[in-house]
Write a structure and sequence with these properties.
This protein is of the alpha/beta class and 442 residues long. Helices cover 32% and strands 20% of the residues. A hairpin with a 5-residue loop joins strand 7 (224-232) and strand 8.
Length: 442
């Protein structure tokens, strides 16, 4: 997208860029080494392979999603190898709802960008946006959604068994006992655009109430044998790998994993400040580009920001869009300021498809921030307009993205609070803010 922004518009050349110090958060949740990950994945497959549907020669649809999971290619490759060792015939299906522009080609491209290609993981990718209606919600389990159809990826529906690979984490649009994880991938990811839209149609209520019911229905009526569930630590590293049998999807087993994931999720160490500078946003970082729990903004009807939790931030500036997003800028409306560089990378077709499929929350997060020529213009404008009359009093934080919060840069106005926090290491000397210098470098 080409946009015309006068270079002298909305800039504050006389506002100085702040001096900053690098701060390191002291996290203590260990990460698994690659050999440990492989061992845990094989153990999970061995446990799930007790299901009688995983008999020798059975075809297995392995559902893989579109988020930037640490070690995703390693986990998928190992799972494929372990399934083959049991005499099974695995293939991969994209389990990502409407992502990739809601096309089979787009979803295959997204998987390739994460290293999920046949020659890399040892299994073919069978991508389609076609779904099969496998039944309708019924009985006491259906609740207010009685009679509504349940959809399943047509290739997955034709397999002897379905196994999902996903991360368990807090969702960015709602709070409940079941949020992002194996259940969501089952109900929304394998439901493709049609299934995803049928759930997002109800907004946050649909995600909280309908999504788990659809997942449990699929776990009972489709050939779902379970999932390989990963939990990441505060640094975005693989910390745990679990086998989740079908009878625990959207039930107590998955609820317990979500509680664990919440306890070690990334966060910022300050409860209130004026300006947050985010170097990059993207679908590989969070479903909403920036994790709403990290920035303390949900933009969901019926959910107040005070109830949502996270820090109170006056202005947020996001400077770039990750390459792995393939132009999908879903969640851009969570920011107040952005750059021309970011906007020119946006694929508005793919972004709007994802945003509209996501329902009310996606539409609200589609609002465009104030667009400025450069990142420095964003910083100067934020400092000048954040409500602090003196630039040296502005409490400013800079991070790489919301998945990487171990290292951050802070302005002098936050120094005293940072030094009082025993969970922080604070750099002794300050230096001018340099947006070309990666956060946490040198």
């Amino acid at each position: 997208m080409q946009i015309d922004i006068p270079l002298d518009l909305f800039t504050f050349p006389d506002v100085p860029l702040p001096d900053v110090r690098t701060v390191e958060q002291l996290f203590d949740t260990p990460a698994l080494a690659p050999a440990q990950i492989e061992a845990e994945v094989r153990r999970a497959v061995d446990e799930l392979a007790r299901d009688p549907r995983l008999r020798t020669g059975a075809s297995v649809a392995v559902g893989v999603g579109s988020r930037g999971l640490e070690n995703l290619a390693l986990v998928v490759r190992t799972a494929i190898s372990a399934l083959k060792a049991h005499g099974l015939q695995p293939f991969i299906v994209p389990a990502m709802g409407s992502h990739g522009g809601a096309t089979a080609e787009g979803q295959t491209e997204v998987l390739h960008s994460y290293g999920i290609a046949p020659e890399e993981v040892g299994a073919d990718i069978r991508a389609t946006m076609e779904v099969k209606e496998i039944g309708r919600l019924e009985g006491e389990e259906a609740g207010p959604f009685a009679g509504e159809p349940v959809y399943l990826d047509r290739n997955a529906a034709g397999a002897n068994a379905i196994l999902l690979i996903n991360r368990i984490k807090a969702h960015t649009d709602f709070q409940g006992e079941i949020e992002s994880g194996i259940a969501k991938m089952t109900a929304i990811g394998l439901g493709k655009q049609r299934g995803a839209a049928s759930i997002h149609h109800y907004g946050a209520y649909g995600l909280r109430e309908k999504m788990p019911r659809v997942a449990r229905f699929l776990a009972q009526h489709a050939p779902v044998v379970g999932g390989i569930a990963m939990i990441e630590n505060e640094r975005g590293e693989t910390a745990e790998v679990h086998a989740l049998p079908a009878d625990q999807i959207a039930r107590d087993g998955e609820k317990a994993l979500l509680k664990r994931a919440r306890a070690i999720m990334p966060r910022l160490p300050f409860s209130e400040f004026d300006v947050l500078i985010v170097d990059e946003m993207g679908k590989n970082v969070s479903g909403t580009g920036m994790d709403t729990h990290v920035i303390g903004r949900a933009l969901m009807p019926g959910i107040s920001e005070s109830e949502w939790g996270g820090p109170c931030i006056r202005l947020i500036a996001v400077l770039d869009l990750t390459r792995e997003s393939h132009g999908n800028a879903a969640g851009i409306g969570l920011a107040d300021l952005t750059t021309r560089r970011l906007i020119e990378k946006v694929d508005f077709g793919a972004s709007f498809t994802n945003m509209c499929t996501s329902g009310e929350g996606g539409v609200l997060k589609a609002r465009l921030p104030l667009i400025l020529p450069t990142g420095e213009d964003c910083v100067r404008t934020a400092v000048a307009t954040c409500g602090q009359p003196s630039p040296d009093k502005v409490r400013l934080i800079r991070i790489r993205n919301t998945a990487h919060t171990q290292f951050l840069e802070i302005s002098g106005a936050l120094l005293q609070e940072a030094r009082q926090n025993t969970r922080l290491n604070v750099e002794e000397r300050s230096r001018p803010l340099d947006l070309c210098r990666p956060v946490g470098s040198g």
